[in-house]
Design a protein that fits this description.
Strand content: under 5%
CATH architecture of the largest domain: Alpha Horseshoe
Radius of gyration: 16 Å
Helix content: over 70%
Largest sheet: none
CATH class of the largest domain: Mainly Alpha
Structural class: mainly alpha
CATH topology of the largest domain: Serine Threonine Protein Phosphatase 5, Tetratricopeptide repeat
Number of domains: 2
Distance between the termini: 24 Å
Shape: globular
Oligomer: single chain
Length: 211
């Protein structure tokens, strides 16, 4: 189940509009993440994500009062966990959880609620007790909050739709997956948007068949 995180957890942050050290650093992490996720052979991804996680951690430590670097570090660590897979990835998933929680404490609204959305994904992808911390009720709450902050975004609609489908509500899921497909393209995010739309189309077909 944890393995699926790598396939489902894409970048949740919007394109950065203002130039500066913080924005530049975030763009670098985004770019490196996309290269690993979409253009690196599967056999090399775990090591590449491990190295990028170290880079992201340094960036977070250099910006201790900002939420955005923690979100990115969490996304990268989550992706590393997804590539690692199995029970050995649980420690990484727990680390990502703590990063998202710290980001939310600093600013839950940063990057259109990306920390809320990312943490919600963890709560419904990770196994529940006694193996992990998975909790469908917490997932629903967090994903719903993220959707309120970014109601037209491709990612919050996709993940909420997938959550509904996985919890036995295909008719409701259809609405959100259609919204994900109708979302406006994000400048500079063509690779991520293309991948997300392909996933949304596949899930929409599944949801329609299950109605």
């Amino acid at each position: 189940m944890i393995r699926r995180l790598a396939l489902l957890l894409l970048l949740l942050a919007p394109t950065f509009g203002r130039a500066g050290p913080l924005e530049d650093g975030l763009v670098v992490l985004q770019h490196d993440w996309e290269l690993i996720r979409y253009q690196t052979p599967a056999a090399e991804r775990e090591k590449r994500f491990e190295a990028l996680a170290a880079k992201a951690h340094e960036f977070s430590e250099a910006n201790p009062q900002r939420s955005e670097p923690l979100v990115w570090e969490g996304i990268i660590v989550s992706s590393w966990a997804g590539e690692k897979g199995g029970l050995g990835a649980l420690s990484l998933v727990k680390k990502a959880k703590a990063l998202y929680e710290n980001a939310i404490r600093l600013d839950a609204n940063a990057l259109d609620g990306s920390a809320l959305n990312s943490l919600g994904v963890l709560y419904y992808k990770v196994p529940g007790w006694p193996i992990g911390f998975g909790d469908k009720d917490k997932a629903r709450e967090l994903l719903g909050r993220a959707l309120q902050l970014n109601p037209n975004g491709i990612d919050p609609n996709f993940f909420y739709g997938e959550f509904l489908l996985e919890t036995g509500k295909p008719a409701e899921a259809t609405t959100y997956l259609e919204r994900a497909l109708a979302a406006a393209p994000r400048p500079g995010r063509q690779v991520a948007d293309t991948g997300r739309r392909e996933e949304a189309r596949a899930l929409l077909e599944k949801a329609r068949a299950a109605r």
